[in-house]
Amino acid sequence: MKTILEILNDKMEAAFTEAGYDKKYGLVRISNRQDLCEFQCSGAMPAAKEYKTAPIKIAGKIVEILSEDKDFSEVSAVMPGFINLRVDSGMLAGLVCQMRREDKFGLNSPDRVMTIIVDYGGANVAKALHVGHLRPAIIGESIKRISRFMGHKVIGDVHLGDWGLQIGLIITELRRRQPELPYFIEGYSGEFPAEPPFTISDLEELYPFASARSKEDEDYKKEAQEATAELQSGNPAYKAIWQHIVNVSVADLKSNYNKLNVEFDLWKKESDAEPYIPDMVKYLKENGYAVVSDGALVVDISEDGDKKELPPCLIVKSNGATLYATTDLATIVERMKLFHPDLMIYITDKRQELHFTQVFRTARKSKLIHEDTECLFIGHGTMNGKDGKPFKTRDGGLLRLETLIEQINGEVYRKMKIRDFTEEEGKRIAEQVGLAAIKYGDLSNQPAKDYVFDLERFASFEGNTGPYLLYTVVRIKSLLNKYRASGGVPDGEMALQPPQDKSEREIYLMLLRFTEVIETAFTEKAPNRICVFMYELADAFNRFYHDHSILGERDEKKKISYLGLIQIIKDVLETCLDLLGLEVPGKM
Ligand code: ARG
């Protein structure tokens, strides 16, 4: 469906052409002074230069032509040559009706459907999810949903970290504590146990313990590094331990991501790229992309125009070990082979920017990707505490994600005013509202910006918050339910009347921006665009609600129109919330 802006543009361009000017001057924008006009064209000013005449004369001519068009309620030329527009209310109602009938509210299918891989979440096996994992999960989930809604083929991959030192550390610590386990018996040739030698809570104690110790004890660290190298070169006992770690962790991670309403299509791991490494390394060497430098294999990634010198991409260390970049490159090889992506999006902390620059440049230079395959890194900022420093527990440790979620749910539960539900129901609602508080608090910021996590503000039912938006939808639903209870049937057929007053008109204009908002959010990979739109729409609804007695309206046609309008507001808001990965509770 054409957007209102496109329709107005067409009309304006036609008017410029009819008046004898180039149509390129007929660009229409949404006015940022809605009190003066709704839409504006300022093309008469540059046109005046080309046609050597006064801008106001050109504007005057255009106004004369457009005044004939009944889709405009007001067309005027304003000094020095602006063309100000207001559109006819009937046109607004017609377009919103059309929007309501169309799939995805009239969002057009993309010209070219892309296969997009979104690599997000960033979890590592054997380690608990902590607040640092919140942002990549929330932002990635939203970008995945937006891309899919746009009509692309999208695959979300958690790409678990499972092939690094953390595994070696756990093996080392486990061996120290339980040397009698068959994994550590020299020459053991039987089957390894099917039951894991640890639970998830054991792992959560083992890993930080081993990690801390390795920082103080050089020998211990060496031992862990050796264990990692042995695992990577296929030691069956270590592989068996690794498999237990993966199984135990994945089950736990799934339940945690589930709580965040974050769903991955693929649960791939760094180690899945392992089989691709030998051939890839050979290819890079044989084609001269990778060279040996100080015993290590590296790819020079410098490019003309670089402002500063970028270090080469390290593929194999001098001791033969592969690195984070190696698995990422091999993962690209795997993805190209299995999924033929047109675009790969990676979401991690912005401190990983250099790593991804190295990986992307290497992949491009050495043709591991096609010429038109795009790679995009989205580096997110840090979630800070009120002291402006990265969010920590009171004693300075990493705050577990589960703990944070419990805290916010508790806060929301205390804030909930209506108590006409069972405790269990209330807890479930608090979970949905709590998640909205966290996710909206995050997504309403630009991904790259740091922000302060302010529990009280995020969980507030007023202002620009997730709970406020959910509450607005719940309020609309309850109005529709009341109407239903009085025998009415709210449906998509409720005829819309042309908007009569300011607050109603404002909503029509706002709804018509929906498709453009989604497209911008996709192009810029900026869920915050959707947040701004939702907040404005929710606010506009609440003003309208304040000014009108919807169910008490005596004029039946008007009442039906109001109900039709709030129904589409609800549908649009719910769609937007879904794009952020949020659900609306039945009541709150
Ligand atoms: N597991 C990594 C970390 O903790 C993030 C993974 C991001 N994705 C990737 N393909 N490198 O930093």
Task: Describe the structure using short key phrases.
Gyrase A, domain 2; 10% strand; four-stranded antiparallel sheet; 588 residues; alpha/beta; binds arginine; four-stranded parallel sheet
User: What structural class should be given to the helix and strand makeup?
Assistant: alpha/beta
Choose one word for the global shape: globular
Binned, the helix content reads: 40-55%
Bound molecules: arginine
How many β-strand runs?
13
Q: Write out the strand line-up for the largest beta sheet, numbering strands in chain order.
A: 1-2-4-3
Give average pLDDT, whole number.
Answer: 95
Task: Round the Cα radius of gyration to an integer and report it.
Answer: 29 Å
**Which stretches of 5+ consecutive residues score pLDDT under 50?**
none
Molecular structure report:
- This protein is of the alpha/beta class.
- Among the domains are: 4-87, Arginyl tRNA synthetase N-terminal domain (Gyrase A, domain 2); 165-259, no CATH class; 276-342 and 349-374, no CATH class.
- 51% of the residues lie in helices and 10% in strands.
- The strands form four sheets. A four-stranded antiparallel β-sheet has the order 1-2-4-3. The chain has a four-stranded parallel β-sheet with strand order 6-5-10-11, with helices on both faces.
- It is globular and about 90 Å long.
- Arginine is lined by residues 119, 122, 124, 159, 161, 328, 346, 348.
- Arginine binds next to strand 10.
